TrEMBL record:
The keyword DNA repair applies. Keywords: DNA damage, DNA recombination, DNA repair. One of its GO terms (cellular component) is bacterial nucleoid. This is DNA repair protein RecO. It comes from the Bacteria. Belongs to the RecO family. Involved in DNA repair and RecF pathway recombination. Pfam families: RecO_C, RecO_N. One of its GO terms (biological process) is double-strand break repair.
């Protein structure tokens, strides 16, 4: 049975083939061998690219399966500049956070919707934070922004809080480096990301919360983003 999918990563395999990591709606992340896909006249050559909505047919008993068919189900979702780096970042989150061969149909839909928002020019930072928060919640890593993780008391807007990984937020006697204002935590709970200072807190929290599950990896998309910004400044 053919499945809706996106390519999230690929690399050369042997002389003319590729190893392709795909994210499917029905069976989650899959590792495929695309035989002959690097040959000049292969019909797969232009298809197996990121951000192209696909329908794939594949089979195999082990973790590494053989790709049998591929067709585009729509035009490529066109991303450029910062939006392109952001799309690659989403791909890395999918690759590192989701275990293989486990269905995540809701994540697939949110991923595709986020790509379309980036392509349509919506503000990048809120798009990424919404996706990160969604991923944390769907994987069971989310926290309660409105309740003190130790006392169980309601987070107060005029107090300061420290984030404790895998636990939540704990009240402090006063502000200290890296602390979060309670007001910001209530905004994060409602995904109210309209203010720049709240967006800064959202990004810092995402980095802290996702870090342990990314295994300390230096994400390639972040490096490309920094390199791109440096290049634009030197022009």
């Amino acid at each position: 049975m053919a499945q809706a999918a996106f390519v999230i990563h690929s690399r050369p395999y042997r002389e003319t083939s590729q190893l392709v990591e795909v994210f499917t709606r029905e069976q989650g992340r899959q590792s495929l061998v695309a035989k002959g896909s690097r040959q000049p006249r292969s019909p797969l050559k232009g298809l197996l690219q990121p951000f192209v909505p696909l329908r794939l047919g594949f089979a195999g008993k082990g973790e590494l399966k053989n790709l049998h068919s591929a067709e585009a189900t729509g035009p490529a979702i066109r991303l450029a500049g910062t939006a392109l780096y952001s799309g690659l970042y989403l791909n890395e989150l999918i690759y590192y956070l989701l275990e293989t061969q486990t269905p995540f149909d809701e994540v697939f839909d949110v991923y595709q919707d986020t790509l379309k928002k980036l392509a349509n020019g919506e503000e990048i930072e809120p798009c990424l934070r919404h996706f990160e928060f969604y991923m944390l919640n769907i994987l069971g890593y989310g926290v309660d922004f409105t309740q003190d993780a130790l006392s169980g008391e309601t987070v107060l807007p005029d107090r300061w809080y420290r984030y404790q990984p895998e636990a939540g937020f704990v009240a402090l006697e006063g502000p200290e480096p890296g602390a979060y204002p309670g007001e910001h935590l209530h905004a994060l709970a409602g995904l109210e990301l309209g203010r720049a200072e709240v967006l800064v807190s959202a990004k810092r929290f995402s980095r802290q919360a996702l870090g342990p599950y990314l295994g300390g990896r230096a994400l390639r998309s972040r490096a490309l983003f920094v390199k791109g910004k440096r290049g634009s400044r030197s022009e």
